Structures are given as C-alpha cells and as structure tokens.
Amino acid sequence: xxxxxxxxxxxxxxxxxxxxxxxxxxxxxxxxxxxxxxxxxxxxxxxxxxxxxxxxxxxxxxxxxxxxxxxxxxxxxxxxxxxxxxxxxxxxxxxxxxxxxxxxxxxxxxxxxxxxxxxxxxxxxxxxxxxxxxxxxxxxxxxxxxxxxxxxxxxxxxxxxxxxxxxxxxxxxxxxxxxxxxxxxxxxxxxxxxxxxxxxxxxxxxxxxxxxxxxxxxxxxxxxxxxxxxxxxxxxxxxxxxxxxxxxxxxxxxxxxxxxxxxxxxxxxxxxxxxxxxxxxxxxxxxxxxxxxxxxxxxxxxxxxxxxxxxxxxxxxxxxxxxxxxxxxxxxxxxxxxxxxxxxxxxxxxxxxxxxx
Length: 357
Ligand SMILES: NC(=O)c1ccc[n+]([C@@H]2O[C@H](COP(=O)([O-])OP(=O)(O)OC[C@H]3O[C@@H](n4cnc5c(N)ncnc54)[C@H](O)[C@@H]3O)[C@@H](O)[C@H]2O)c1
Prior knowledge:
This protein is of the alpha/beta class. The protein has twelve helices and 13 strands. It starts with 11 loop residues before the first strand and ends in a 12-residue tail after the last helix.
C-alpha cells in the first residue's frame, strides 16, 4: 500500500546522512528515479562537506545535525553512510522517528545490534536494508540463475578474492578508517565485504572453518587487519576467501565457481567482467549472450559500480509499494554474523567485540 501520509502528486522525500565518498552513488540513484523521488536534505557533521554536497547535487537543504533531518515530517526515508560504528545508533534513531532506512554496509558492527534493528523495523512496519549493490549486478544475477538451473553441476569449490591497495594517507587522514572502534576491521569488513557478500548470496549461506589475518604491517596508522584469508564451507563445498589492502593493484576482485559440469570466473569490478564460462554448452551459450550486454557508466568511484541504482529502485518500490526487497535486512544481519565469526576465527577483536566501544 502506498504511504497514506504522503500526497500522491508529491515526490517521495529522501535524505542522505553522511556526504563522503559513497554518498554520490545515493544521490545519483535516488535522483534517477524518474522524478518520483527527490532528496530534501544533505546531512554531514562537517558543514563544508554538507554544503558542498548539497550544492553539487542540487539538494535544497543541508545540516550538520541528523536530528534536524529526522524531525522533518516530509522526510520519508534516509540513507546512513557514515563510519561503521555509528550505523546502529543512526539507523535506530531514524526508525524511531518513523523513517525507512537504507544503511551502507555493514548493517551494524554487532549481531545484537543487527537483530535489534530488524525487530525495530518489523514492529514499526518500516523498510530497513543494507547496501549490497553487487548482488544486483546483472552478471551476478546471471550466475545465480546458471547455478540454480544446474548448469555448473555439483560445485567442487569456490574461490573469492579482493586485491586492493590503500596508501598511508587513506588511514592517517580519516577519523575512522583503520580503527577497531570505528571501522571494526578493515580489509574484510570494508573492502572485502562485497566479495564475501556476493559469495554468500550465490552459495546460499556460508560456515566459517578457519581464518588467518595480518595486522600491524602496513603503516603505523592502521591497527586493523590489512589481509585476511579464510576457509569456509557452503554445505559440503569448500570456499576460500582472500582479501588484502596491501597489494600494488588499486582494485581487483575475482570469483571462481568450479563445478562438475562447468566453471565460471568473473569479477565484480566495473564494468564487471566474465573471464571464463566453460564446460556445459548451455552455460557457454548463455555466457556468450551475457557478454553482448554493454556496460553502463558508473556515477561515483568506478569500482562501486552501477548497482546502487538497482538496489535503490528496489528500496523505493518497497517503501512506496510496501513490497519485500530482493535483498532485505536479513541478508545484512547474516553478513554481520559471518563477519563476527571470521574475526573470531582469526583471533582479532573484530566487530562483535567492539560493541559499546
Ligand atoms: N557500497 C559500497 O560500495 C561502498 C563504498 C564506499 C563506502 N561504503 C560504506 O559507506 C559508509 C561511508 O563510507 P565513506 O567511504 O563514504 O566514508 P567517508 O569518511 O568518506 O564519509 C563519511 C561521512 O560521514 C560524515 N559523518 C560522520 N558521522 C556523522 C554523523 N553523525 N552525522 C552526519 N555525518 C556524519 C563524515 O563527516 C564524513 O563526511 C561506510 O559504511 C562504508 O563502508 C560503501
């Protein structure tokens, strides 16, 4: 049912809280919704950042105070795109003022907070979601279909990796990156998140078997892990995960699904590339069809891709049409649980243990 409190002829009103690196993807995605949505507020605790973001994206009001945004009855929904440690409190505050909430990943830093948010949203009948944009990538959706249609046969193993480079200034110049208290980890919870998230979605759930991490080797400005490798299972299928921010390569993901009847190797960078699809002739036929799709231009940092638009469209339909989302809050909460287990297995403080920090 459409929201009865919103006049039908007025566009739905969204606000962006946190106007940093990823925020342009949210502005782009809501503004791409054919005039049905508008962004009413830009909010950043740094006034210069909020004002510049509002001006650049044609947003009529800006503030440094999230409470001012949440007190505006015209605001129907908010994006929360600040450091990880504040996701839970800001999302809770937004839900308690009756706003639908789209939280950047990860949903929260602790499983307890994630569960509390899910309950809060459910009891209030509000839409809550975590950004998982790469689950919406056409290539990932295609692989999901190929797996469900049995084109790869029984999976033998899955490999997922992210190789990235981050310089010292990236950590030194940020109030939150590289700290357990604010980022809750680094290479895994931040840069490696999407590789794990897409693997979890395609495998239908993962169990952690072992993990090893490296900390303290990159710059003095980083207390969190720069590298983490893990062994997981999807049912009886072995899954390996390797993530690092200490490479010389700016950004390179790679997912490899090896089955008894076919192998698929792809990345989720932008444009996402299908490197290999071989074995089963039907798999090869569908892969050739998929390769003919032309890539779209990315609105923000290239490797964030284009699928914020797809997930925001899904979120917007859920808010105004009250339908379920393809990727609802349970997916985000499952990821928080998995991250906690991985940090525990690697004997690191990790998100779950930083509750209340
Ligand atoms: N989905 C993706 O591909 C993707 C990409 C990048 C970042 N992210 C996620 O987005 C979130 C933000 O990351 P970023 O890289 O944009 O960070 P950033 O540091 O560039 O920006 C965060 C902004 O939030 C502001 N802020 C902090 N606390 C605030 C508060 N209480 N009220 C208002 N503003 C506040 C800061 O001043 C800063 O400008 C993180 O959760 C990150 O993991 C997701």
